[in-house]
Write a structure and sequence with these properties.
Blueprint: E1 10-15, H1 20-35, E2 44-49, H2 55-67, H3 77-85, E3 87-91, H4 99-107, E4 113-118, H5 125-134, E5 143-146, H6 154-165, E6 173-175, H7 183-193, E7 207-215, H8 224-227, H9 232-249, H10 258-271, H11 278-283, E8 284-290, E9 292-294, E10 297-299, E11 317-323, E12 333-339, E13 346-353, E14 371-377, E15 381-389, E16 398-406, H12 407-410, H13 418-428, H14 437-456, E17 462-465, H15 472-479, H16 486-490
Parallel strand pairs: 1-2, 1-4, 2-3, 4-5, 5-6, 7-12, 8-17
Antiparallel strand pairs: 7-13, 8-11, 9-10, 11-12, 13-14, 14-15, 15-16
Helix pairs in contact: 1-2, 1-13, 5-6, 6-14, 9-10, 9-14, 10-14
Length: about 500
């Protein structure tokens, strides 16, 4: 949904250019953009690391990363060759030998935009930005891209933002959340604000509750050391799930303009009823996966994963009940849920409509009826379940029937990967789908008291078997008001 479609020539400088994120996401996405004609012929990609690689060494690593990516099929060797010719590597020891900054300056062109992508731990972001400024590499139009996590709490997030903001103006700072690059997430705005039939129903009068789920079958793997400093609340809820909640609940912006959209998202975050004190124990659930079976394979429990202590209270699952204190959503609970080592991988938003005020047909209350499901992954699409009469004579019977929009079946063009979309927007200078500083800090203000309350509780995360639907507490959380998670209702 970039508002500037014409590619502009740029030097994209990736700090951490030989790291995991660059190899798994950035380079394959850039290759696909190049293949599909979305990169200007003069655009160059400069990987920066301390690895001391030659350009040829880095291109070999990049070629292997592109060929090994599941979304890429290299059928045209000339296209890959053209892409690799864009790539180079520069060795910079941030905080060390200053000659690396001179080497970087030598490969940057004065007539191209400069985009500095910080695919590095956030604590060194400020040092990199200061180094860029000291070396005279920050041009007036230069942009910086920051990856999550942006700190561990509000104070550390503000410290990171202050350090980067001392060099880059807020309008040139792009905080990336790859969930916002998903095709279905962007279609959520179109679904709400381009279709007149739906928006009148999008309020507490007609919606009973909303469920937002991000479930993964994978565990933490080799990231146990990092994950013990994060947990699911910081890793997923503070950014991904709250951003999805904002897009679901926001008021119509005055235009599809970056600040108009982000202003409305900020209002949602500021309207979240605080989760503090006794409400934390009542309205949140923590879980941690144990040993189990995922898709037919036996897997380790979280405490058995290498790289962390034998005992840990780190949560790998969170479910919580949020409330938005405004006129549109008063009384409508938003249930947020995320977990690792779940039975199925899926990300979805489920809008559950209220039952008709006066049923005149028998069997009006049927499992799954009256649900709008926005599937982010897998099989991106929109699924509406409504009631219809079963064909035939005799007694009138109702059954739920789906109205299905599958993006893969409906549109012949390939949907871009999330990082493709966001990288294209960065290169075009469109920050609509990126988080503004005040959004990030508003999210931390809501999340911090929950984590602080957990730290003060004597209870530990509830263990759930890997490959299950999560801890029993998550089912009690939604079940105490007579509601159920969508997948349970659907299979009743």
């Amino acid at each position: 949904m970039s508002q500037q479609s014409a590619p502009r020539p740029a030097d994209l400088v990736v700090f951490g250019g030989t790291g995991d994120l660059s190899m798994r996401k950035l380079l394959p996405s850039l290759y696909l953009l190049d293949r599909d004609g979305h990169l200007d012929a003069r655009t160059r990609v400069v990987a920066v690391s301390r690895d001391g690689l030659t350009d040829a060494d880095f291109r070999d690593k990049a070629a292997a990363a592109v060929r090994g990516h599941q979304a890429v099929q290299v059928t045209e060797p000339d296209v890959l060759r053209r892409f690799l010719e864009r790539l180079s590597h520069t060795t910079v020891d941030v905080g060390g030998d200053p000659s690396g900054w001179e080497d970087l300056a030598a490969v940057l062109a004065p007539d191209r935009d400069r985009v500095f992508y910080l695919a590095v731990p956030p604590m060194i972001s400020g040092e990199i930005c200061r180094g860029l400024a000291a070396a005279g590499l920050v041009t007036p139009a230069a942009r910086v891209v920051m990856e999550k996590p942006l700190g561990r709490d509000l104070a550390s997030s503000q410290a990171v933002n202050d350090a980067v903001g001392a060099v880059f103006d807020e309008s040139r700072t792009y905080r990336i959340d790859h969930y916002l690059g998903k095709e279905t997430v962007q279609n959520l705005l179109v679904l709400r604000f381009a279709n007149v039939f739906l928006e009148p129903l999008w309020n507490s009068r007609w919606i009973d509750h909303v469920q937002i789920t991000a479930a993964e079958t994978v565990g933490v793997g080799g990231r146990r050391g990092y994950y013990d400093t994060s947990g699911a609340m910081r890793d997923m809820v503070q950014n991904h799930l709250l951003q999805l909640l904002c897009l679901t609940a926001m008021e119509p912006p005055s235009s599809y303009d970056r600040d108009a959209v982000r202003d409305e998202k900020l209002k949602v975050l500021q309207s979240l009823r605080p989760l503090e004190g006794d409400r934390v124990a009542e309205d949140t659930v923590r879980g941690q996966y144990g040993r189990g079976t995922v898709q037919g394979a036996e897997v380790l429990g979280y405490l058995d994963e290498a790289g962390g202590p034998a005992a840990s209270d780190t949560e790998t699952f969170v479910a919580l009940r949020a409330e938005i204190a405004n006129w549109r959503w008063a009384g409508v609970p938003f249930y947020l849920r995320t977990g690792k080592r779940m039975s199925h991988s899926r990300s979805e938003i489920v809008v559950r409509f209220r039952e008709v005020p006066h049923p005149i047909f028998p069997g009006t209350h049927l499992p799954g009826a009256g649900s709008l499901v926005i599937r982010l992954q897998p099989d991106e699409g929109i699924h509406l379940t409504m009631l219809a009469k079963t064909p035939g004579a005799g007694a009138l019977r109702l059954r739920p029937v789906p109205l299905e929009l599958s993006f893969a079946d409906t549109f012949s063009t390939r949907s871009p990967e999330a990082y493709e979309r966001l990288l294209m927007d960065v290169l075009a200078g469109d920050s609509t789908l990126f988080m503004r500083r005040d959004e990030v800090e508003a999210a931390w203000r809501w999340v911090d008291p929950v984590i602080e309350a957990w730290n003060g509780l004597s209870t530990t995360p509830e263990t759930y078997p890997a490959g299950s639907a999560g801890p029993a507490g998550a089912h009690r959380l939604i079940g105490r008001t007579g509601r159920t998670w969508y997948e349970e209702e659907r299979h009743r």
